[in-house]
Amino acid sequence: MTITITAFESSPDRGRGLARDMRVRWALEEVGQPYDVRLLSFKAMKEPAHLAVHPFGQIPTYEGGDLALFESGGIILHIAERYGGLLPDDGNARARAISWMFAALSTVEQPIIEYSTVKLLERDESWYDARLPAVEERVRVRLRQLSARLGSADWLDGAFSAGDLLMVHAVQRLTGSGLLDAFPNLGAYIARAEARPAYKRAFAAQLAVFEAARRS
What pLDDT sits at residue 123? Predict the structure, then answer.
C-alpha cells in the first residue's frame, strides 16, 4: 500500500516547517513508513478533486489503499494507531498520549494561531494595539501551564509520543516571537524534538519543496 499525502506546492511558511503537512511527514518518518507527496497549488486545493478528500479545501490529506483522511490530527492518530512507535503499548499511557494530542490541537494551538493571525493580518487595523496584549496573555497562560506540567522531564508523559509531536509543532510557531523566552524548558523541549532523526528527515523534505518552488 502506497501512502500519499498532499502539501502546498508553494508553502506560505517559506520553508520553516510550520505547514501542517510537516507534522504528517514527521509522524510517517517516526514510524518508518515511506510516502509519496502530491503538491497542490492554492487553486487546485479548491477544485472538486481535492474537495472530495478534504471538504474544506486545505492540506494535508492522507490516502492509503481505500482510505482517505483529512485533518492533520486525525491523520496522525490513524498513523499512530496503525503503526508502532507513536503511542505506548500500555492502555492507560496510550489514553494519556491521545489526550495530549487533543490538548495540543484544541487547547494550546488555538491561542497561538490567534496570535499569529493578529501579527500577520491585523497589524494595520485600528484595534491592533489594543488587541495584541490580550492575545499575547492568552498564549502566555497556556505556556505557563504547559511549562509547569513538563517541568524537567524530556517529554510530556514518559517516552516521546504523538502527543509530543503535535505539541511541539504547535508551540514551534512561537519561535522568534519572544514569548518562549520566559520558558527555557519549553525551548529545550522543542530542541529535543528537532534533534530527532525523523524530524530532521521530515523538515528536509518539506524545505526541499520550498527551495524547488523558489528556484522555479
Answer: 79
